[in-house]
Design brief:
289 residues, alpha/beta, Rossmann fold, 2 domains, seven-stranded mixed beta sheet, 11 strands
């Protein structure tokens, strides 16, 4: 640990922000590598006379901040960690950085399955870092979860994240494309959730550097219209869902009605497009027959 006065630290932080970049990004770096949370940072402004302990010295923190400013590498990849809901997740450039809007998925699902005693089997298709599947497994120990991903590296990362964030044993991980690893679960799934690649090709080419140059292309690009993977998931869902089983998919901001149509064409009922924090139709949900 590195002992430093709060006054010196705040001057250092002011200097870093003067170079450019966003305050929340610097705070994330300080949290993930320096071990100083946002709550603790806010308290420093009130108690600037105190001393504090950092996990990393200021010179090294400054090195990582400069690297972020000069290359646009996301802080999460520089530090190797991302914070999502109440989870601290290991991430690398083999998995997407979990987005705040995706957190709503957990609330939507908890709103559907309100009976805490009800035992369900859920699957998280294309789990990446494991954010959704881990959050769901922690939400209710009675729920048995399955997480799949086509990338073995992602499965290894998600498995470690589960071990680091939980002492439960209600989540399993399988390597394979979407539904492929679930041959033994046909007709047994109560809930399937997916945040698949949904960015249309033309939109992908215009993504910010920090996304396009560093986050995995195969987790972002959804084909010409962005619907290639979503179509595959929806069309195969009836083989795996129980009667009255639910499917929830995160989609691009302008795809809601198209995805809703896909659901209806594949005999889903109670189909709705739900909005995210910004009022955008971000999630499509339906029940199989």
């Amino acid at each position: 640990m590195f002992l430093i006065s709060a006054e010196k630290f705040l001057l250092w932080k002011k200097k870093q922000i003067s170079k450019g970049g966003e305050n929340h990004s610097l705070n994330l770096l300080i949290d993930s590598l320096g071990g100083l949370s946002n709550e603790e940072l806010n308290l420093l402004k009130i108690k600037s006379e105190q001393n504090l302990n950092l996990k990393m010295n200021l010179d090294l923190l400054e090195y990582f901040w400069d690297k972020h400013l000069n290359t646009s590498i996301p802080i999460q990849y520089l530090s190797g960690f991302s914070f999502w809901r109440n989870l601290k997740l290991e991430v690398s450039n083999r998995v997407l950085i979990p987005r705040p809007e995706t957190e709503l998925i957990i609330e939507i699902i908890e709103g559907i399955f309100k009976n805490k005693e009800e035992k369900i089997t859920f699957v998280d298709l294309g789990t990446g870092s494991g954010a959704i599947s881990i959050a769901l497994s922690l939400a209710n120990p009675n729920w048995n979860g399955i997480a799949t991903d086509i990338d073995k590296n992602a499965i290894e990362i998600a498995s470690r994240n589960y071990k680091n964030n939980s002492n439960q044993s209600n989540l399993k991980f399988y390597d394979g494309n979407w539904w492929d690893p679930l041959a033994n679960y046909k007709g047994e799934i109560d809930l399937a959730v997916a945040n698949p690649p949904y960015i249309p090709k033309d939109t992908y080419e215009l993504l910010p550097i920090e996304v396009k140059n560093f986050e995995p292309k195969n987790a972002l690009l959804g084909g010409k219209e962005g619907l290639d993977h979503i179509s595959q998931i929806v069309q195969n869902a009836p083989l795996y869902l129980k009667h009255k089983g639910w499917l929830l998919i995160e989609n691009h901001f302008d795809q809601g009605e198209k995805v809703k149509k896909l659901f209806l064409e594949n005999r889903f009922t109670s189909v709705k497009v739900l909005k995210d924090f910004s009022g955008i139709g971000r999630f499509t949900i339906g029940r199989y027959k």
